[in-house]
Write a structure and sequence with these properties.
The chain is an alpha/beta fold. The protein is 37% helix and 15% strand. The longest helix has 33 residues.
Length: 370
């Protein structure tokens, strides 16, 4: 077959896939629309905004970094699990080529340069350059102050058997933070566990070296506990079983009504410890899932098996699990770290970042006395 013929065949295949995805998405939206009336409202609990912590795996790790930079004034710590440096997918053509072309170029760079590390010979990723980009964006008020970022506590993790996001990419993220001025004493970097691409646990999930759904692996390591202790900067009360609290599915629609092309799912989940229902002042941890790790893909595996709720229940910590959905430009339900929601994706004006910040604001509102 000629080159033109092969290109035509690929175009036809991808067009057909996009059409089928559109049909499936329409059916899914129709079904979820009927569920809307049964979804809870995210409650006001009088939570603390200052000292918010974040974590994420893979695409969720990139989003955790983006939210950390965007709202550095309220964030005090971040867990970057199998993720790379802030702004890694941004190409030199941003703002020059049309939006669709920019997304394509960023996506190509994301896979090659920010996951598989095949662009290292061309200096991608470049932590020093990305640090300068972040400083410029902060000066332009597109993100928060770098002075607030460099006081954060950071947990970083790269499994030695990770075949999806190479360890060198996670090391580049650590270098970026150091270039910005984050002290080594604020960074905990775990890179000696033979884990695949996953959030790892003491006894839940697949074999430790696996890199496949649901991306929860049994590595005899309590990542949730180690990460929360690091980003919160304190010893924590030991977890207890059964977990004392509520996993509440809530509507995300009210936080996305004025946001075009946001990519968020109709609902997310919040874990509320019993103590946080009765007394204000709980802190909040936001946990961003990875690609193909939303609930339609893995059920509640990330929410319940990660172990985050076990630690949260005994330490007055609300855990927010926001969620994105499938789309033609996002067929694996990834958080946006390459620009599929628009050119503002790295900034505090990004649709997904604005939505999650609005969820935090709701949790921080005084609890109703009725």
């Amino acid at each position: 077959m000629s080159i033109l013929g092969r290109l035509w065949a690929r175009w036809w295949i991808w067009t057909t896939v996009a059409i089928l995805l559109g049909i499936l998405l329409a059916l899914w939206m129709s079904w979820t629309g009927r569920r809307a009336a049964n979804l809870a409202v995210l409650p006001a609990l009088g939570a603390q905004l200052q000292g918010t912590t974040l974590s994420g795996i893979s695409a969720g790790a990139y989003m955790a970094g983006q939210f950390q930079f965007s709202h550095a004034d309220i964030v005090s710590g971040a867990g970057i699990i199998a993720g790379g440096p802030y702004g890694c997918a941004e190409t030199a053509f941003s703002g020059v080529v049309p939006s669709g072309g920019n997304v394509f170029l960023n996506a190509s760079r994301a896979v090659s340069g920010c996951m598989m590390d095949t662009l290292a010979l061309w200096g991608i990723p470049n932590p020093q350059q990305l640090a300068e980009m972040a400083r410029t964006m902060a000066d332009e008020n597109q993100i928060g102050n770098i002075a607030d970022v460099v006081t954060d506590r950071l947990y970083m993790f790269s499994g030695t058997q990770d075949s999806v996001v190479k360890p060198e990419i996670v090391k580049a993220a650590a270098t970026l933070y150091r270039n910005l001025g984050l002290p080594d004493g604020n960074i905990m970097f775990v890179q000696n566990i033979p884990a695949g691409h996953a959030f790892v646990t003491v006894d839940k999930g697949l074999a430790c070296s696996e890199s496949r759904s649901p991306f929860i692996n049994d590595c005899d390591y309590d990542q949730a506990g180690a990460m929360l202790k690091q980003v919160l900067g304190e010893d924590l009360a030991a977890p207890q079983d059964p977990v004392r609290g509520e996993f509440l599915e809530f509507s995300q629609d009210e936080f996305t009504r004025d946001l075009p092309d946001h990519g968020l799912a109709q609902s997310g989940v919040v874990f509320i410890p019993d103590s946080c229902r009765n007394e204000a002042g709980c802190r909040v941890h936001v946990a961003f899932h990875g690609c193909l790790q939303n609930r339609p893909s893995v059920g509640d595996a990330f929410i319940r098996d990660s172990g985050l709720a076990r630690w949260a229940a005994t330490n007055r910590l609300i855990v927010l699990f926001p969620e994105v959905t499938f789309a033609a430009l996002n067929p694996q339900a990834c958080w946006d770290w390459w620009g599929y929601t628009g050119r503002s994706y790295l900034t505090k004006d990004a649709p997904q970042i604005r939505a999650v910040r609005s969820m935090l604001d709701r949790l921080a509102e005084p609890a109703s006395k009725s």
